[in-house]
Amino acid sequence: MIKLTHVSKEYPKRGYALHDVSFHLKKAEFAFLTGHSGSGKSTTMSLIHMADYPTSGEVRVSGFSSARMTGRDLWKVRRRVGMVFQDFRLLPGRSALENVALVLEVTGTPRKAIQPKANRLLDQVGLSGKAGALVEELSGGERQRVAIARALANDPYILLADEPTGNLDDRATRGILDLFWDINATGMAVLMATHDLELIRRYPHARLFELDQGKLVYDSAAADTEAS
Amino acid sequence: MYAMREAIAGVRRAPVLIGLSSGMVGMALFVVGLFSLATYNLQIALAAIEERVEVVVYLRDDARQSEIDHLLGELADYPEVSRVNYVSKRDALERAQRELPEFGQLFVDAEVNPLPQSLEVELRPGNRTPDVVERIARGARNYPFVEDALYGEEWVDRLFALRRIGFASTAVLGAAFALVAALIIGTALRIAIFARREEIYIMRLVGARNGFIRRPFILEGAMAGLAGGILAIVLTYTTYRGVYAYLFEVAWIPGGWVGIGLLAGALFGAASSGVAIRRHLREV
Ligand SMILES: Nc1ncnc2c1ncn2[C@@H]1O[C@H](COP(=O)(O)OP(=O)(O)O)[C@@H](O)[C@H]1O
Ligand SMILES: [Mg+2]
Fold it and tell me: What pTM did the predictor assign?
């Protein structure tokens, strides 16, 4: 599903943001990616999303290789990977429904199917009553739910979330994580980056990756096999 | 269709910007329109003059009728030649008396008719060029009974030079102003793209194809170009009516030129916005 093989990312002047990172996230897995601020979590996410490419090594996402990806074909990856950010990245001045419907419009969903599907997605994230509300009228937790509904619109195989609860209070954070588990239960892989160790401790069943200064220093799956 | 709806929405979002750029494009193309009008009318005037381009072969008085008939046949066989008229000495004299009444008496008093007999070679349209008349004249001069063959070298050359200048200046000016128009539309579209960069970012994020993102902008550019073209035609036509009414009689440019102008406006608009959005997508 997602496979990183000896992936390094070097930024000019800044040095290595990632150094020789390898891991394999399988179908329908739920994993946290943790580490201090600046440890390379967002860099990892953007490489998986192919917003950027590794300096060396290979990122494979559901059959697509970073080594052969071009701007022309990027859309194929983007439709398999849903992405959620700390700052939501919704279009202001538009309703929750319009934000979700945009995805469906630009990926060629038949016109008649757009509205019902957007409504269904908003239902799924618990926002059935807020479809017509403008982004500005929604709380942080609600905005993140709209962003999640948008990320799900393409029926992706993987949901990536980069510090999705970073701007949310504890109650909203719990709500978002419950939603992620529900989504994961439908068979979708979830990879969530967070530096909030307290939060991670509440979900001991999830797989856990830890980055430190660009290096992968812990992988719970590998630790399990070593222990046994 | 999504692209069309979005393009129209784009114009709605920034009517002043798109309107201004269409207006400027219209002014640029208006200059081209004026030049086309001038060139076209120059062409008509030149065509009228050109019709009178012919080669006159003057024959010696002692040329035999059989020789003259032979040359007449030869000249008529040129593919570029439409007709050859024989003008006898007497015809020449009559014509001179008719056209130059001041000298009429002089000719009558003369003991002998001083005017030579001649062959007037008329050319088919499109063949009244310096090299054709030159070739025919040179061929005729080879005959011993031909005194000379003339065609007014100088003014034929000048006529064609004038025509070339007219065409070249319209082409150069048209290209220059079309470029200006393209730059204006490109700039307007870059502003429109900048205004919508978040949306473009989101579209890419969620898996819109590049072509899908590009299309509304290209269409918007084409519409701005087309609007500019229409404005230019309206302005040119108004000027044409004004000149016609108050200055002198001119002809309106052919519909084909107008069509080409409109098409060019739309294409340039589409192309320059296409370049702008392509560049933007490559950068982000
Ligand atoms: N676009 C960039 N250009 C230069 N350096 C960057 C860029 N993005 C991230 N970095 C650097 O890479 C390192 C990892 O950053 P990041 O992946 O954002 O960490 P995290 O998300 O874990 O906080 C940091 O040192 C950061 O300064
Ligand atoms: Mg980060």
Answer: 0.75
